[in-house]
Amino acid sequence: MIALRPADLVLIRALAQASYPVECCGILIGRREADRVTVTRIVPSANILANERPDRFEIDPRTRLEAMRQAEAEGLEMVGHYHSHPDHPAQPSATDLAAAWEPDLVWLIVAVTKDGPGAIAAFKADDAATRFDPVGMDTLPDDC
Ligand SMILES: [Zn+2]
User: Fold this and answer.
1) Does 16 map to a domain?
2) End-to-end CA distance of the chain
3) Domain containing 103 — which CATH number?
4) How remote is the CA of residue 34 from the centroid of ligand 1, in Å?
């Protein structure tokens, strides 16, 4: 289960729409408790593959390093990341599976078309990164 604030979901959808038809991406900061992941902040990143491959994404390693440092200082951690699927469903692609080498991270995927953002869904790779399993989504109060 992953829990996010409605405002953060609105922001992720807005970012997906703004970068369309290029994939957007960013980092999910929060904490893990047993089977539940709570996202307390999202950190948008430049997609460093945007110019060469608009249908791929890679989080800027400097943004990631800085976000992880700041999270650690707050007793939080990187719990996952998000990216958009322009003109594709909110389902992990074969490329996503090939990049799923960190089994602890939740993958949040938002579908987007020229008409705007669509479905948003969460996944986690199994330990051997042979498949993605769906992760249930929950919403937090906006003020927590
Ligand atoms: Zn993808």
Assistant:
1) yes
2) 17
3) 3.40.140.10
4) 26
Residue 131 lies in a domain: yes
Domain carrying residue 134: 2-138
Q: How far is the CA of 90 from the centre of ligand 1 (A)?
A: 8
pLDDT tens, residue by residue, 30-65: 999 988 999 999 999 999 999 998 889 999 999 999
Q: Which residue, among 84, 89, 128, 82, has the nearest Cα to 105 in the 3D structure?
A: 82
Amino acid residing at 117: P
Taking the centre of ligand 1 as the mean of its atom positions, its distance from the CA of residue 70, in whole angstroms, is: 26
Q: Is residue 144 part of a domain?
A: no
Span 67-118, pLDDT tens digits? 999 999 999 999 999 999 999 999 999 999 999 988 899 999 999 999 999 9
Provide the annotated active-site residues: 23
Q: CA 78 to CA 74: how far, in whole Å?
A: 11
The torsion angles phi and psi of 110, rounded to 5 degrees, stand at -120, 125
pLDDT band (50, 70, 90) for residue 143: low
d(CA 87, CA 7): 24
Residue 108 belongs to a domain: yes
For residue 143, report the distance from its CA to the centre of ligand 1, in Å.
Answer: 30
